[in-house]
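INFO batch 0412 | record 1 of 1 | parsing
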Amino acid sequence: MDTPKQAALLKRHRLKPHLPRHVAIIMDGNGRWAKKRHLPRIAGHRAGAHSIREIVRLSGELGIEALTLYAFSTENWRRPKKEVGLLMQLLKQYLRNEVGELLENNVQLKTIGNTGDLPLEIQSELRKAMGATAHCTGLKLVLALSYSGRADLIHAIKRIAKKAKAGHLHPEAITEKTIGQSLSTADLPEVDLLIRTSGEFRVSNFLLWELAYSEFHITKTLWPDFRTPHFIAALRDFQGRQRRFGGVESIVGSVTSWAR
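INFO prediction complete | emitting tokens
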């Protein structure tokens, strides 16, 4: 149920109450933002961190349940070693500097992806930040780090295969729910809205299973320039969609149980 503060915020931004439960964002365009300004690429990533703070805060204030940010893909390891090193340092700074902000806004930090690939100091900072925010009951902020949608599906299939081999699961009993519960996002609502910045039309190996019935919002705005007005525009776009999930009746809001 909306709080008076949330209701006032919805009214101010001319939003309807039925917001997406789970928003995922592909934060694209940091490098192009820096290039346009004749700055090093890392400057774009630093600027993008300000967008993260604003969107996380707004998501929590609006009462959105989960926000998943594609922060670092497995493919990103192919970037120049110097750039990857600077990105890891930026991630460490973010984790150290933003815990207070997350706690103040009742945000719980989570991760998906193969975080074991990250430098040990980053893994340590992640554990500290997640531990500090574990009791928070508001927005779930999910950072996809060293993440691959295909790899997550492979891991899910292996988990299911082990259960079947051990005799705990009959192959005929495997359903969509079985697979969904074996993914790293099992404890999150279905993704209702995917936002991609910088105007690219691709999912880039992100949440391949989870995006099955998501609404897509593509904006040409580069991620460092993405702020409250852009996020509100994406939410209004979502609220104007007619969601059928393969059926006939028009449904607005999250995926219903029969569609899972």
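INFO post-check: The first strand starts at residue 22 and ends at 26.
INFO record closed
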